[in-house]
Backbone:
């Protein structure tokens, strides 16, 4: 039974997907007719105002758009017309830089807080004050001080990625079993060596949990940030396609955003499993 569970789950997922696509296709074929729409808007949507077809594209239309993007994902025809691959690369690059900066800051500070109750109490008011602030609230200040939309987006990613990693690191470090620390002290293991040989392995699953939460938040925030600052990125692509009334491209972008977010999450989930249950 346990061995067949993944296969059964995959078949059920496939069935749900097929059912959803069929319902979607049927719904757009005869519901929400364009006769009720303004003729100019119907023309912009590429639909005849006299047909019985919905203004919302169906899965076949979206599939054709996906294939078009796959054939040439890296075209560049000017500032406002770049391929989906280029836009995605900009977003992933910004997330990677902001996330890496957050790792460099959050994990050492989290270790400091977790190993020192004094520092934990001293820094806690600042953490509690800044943690609830929406990352996008930092965008105007970042744009004013940094004067660059791309770097401002990286800063926002850094801010939103910082707190889950820092808090989970501090929690994991402070939760290290006292018996292990006492043995290390008995063997006269120094603080730095103790941090790497005892505390880090014990806290690694919790640290990776924070990193996994952070990457999900970072990918979510970059889309909103790029919608605000414009220029390049998958968020800007979504907003630009909406302005062009290209609903096909908007739906494709949503699917791509979800797919990349799932891949990023699964990469860190795999790392977390390797640390928790080493092979």
Residues:
């Amino acid at each position: 039974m346990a061995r067949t569970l993944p296969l059964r789950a995959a078949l059920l997922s496939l069935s749900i997907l097929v059912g959803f696509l069929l319902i979607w296709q049927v719904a757009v074929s005869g519901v929400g007719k364009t006769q009720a729409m303004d003729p100019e808007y119907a023309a912009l949507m590429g639909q005849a105002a006299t047909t019985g077809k919905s203004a919302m594209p169906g899965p076949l239309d979206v599939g054709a758009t996906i294939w078009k993007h796959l054939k040439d994902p890296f075209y560049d025809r000017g500032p406002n017309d770049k391929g989906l691959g280029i836009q995605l690369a900009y977003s992933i690059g910004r997330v990677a830089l902001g996330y890496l900066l957050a790792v460099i800051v959050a994990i050492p500070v989290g270790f400091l807080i977790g190993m020192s109750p004094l520092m934990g109490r001293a820094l806690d008011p600042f953490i509690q004050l800044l943690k609830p602030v929406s990352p996008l609230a930092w965008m105007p200040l970042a744009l004013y001080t940094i004067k660059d939309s791309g770097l401002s987006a990286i800063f926002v990613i850094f801010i939103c990625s910082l707190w889950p990693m820092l808090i989970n690191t501090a929690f994991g470090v402070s939760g290290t079993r006292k018996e292990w620390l006492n043995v290390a002290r008995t063997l006269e293991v120094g603080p730095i060596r103790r941090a790497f040989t005892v505390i880090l392995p014990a806290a690694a699953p919790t640290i990776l949990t924070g990193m996994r939460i952070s990457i999900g938040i970072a990918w979510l925030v970059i889309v909103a940030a790029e919608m605000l600052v414009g220029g390049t990125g998958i968020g800007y692509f979504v907003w630009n396609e909406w302005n062009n009334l290209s609903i096909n491209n908007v739906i494709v972008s949503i699917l791509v955003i979800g797919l990349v977010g799932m891949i990023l999450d699964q990469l860190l989930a795999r790392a977390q499993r390797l640390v928790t249950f080493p092979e």
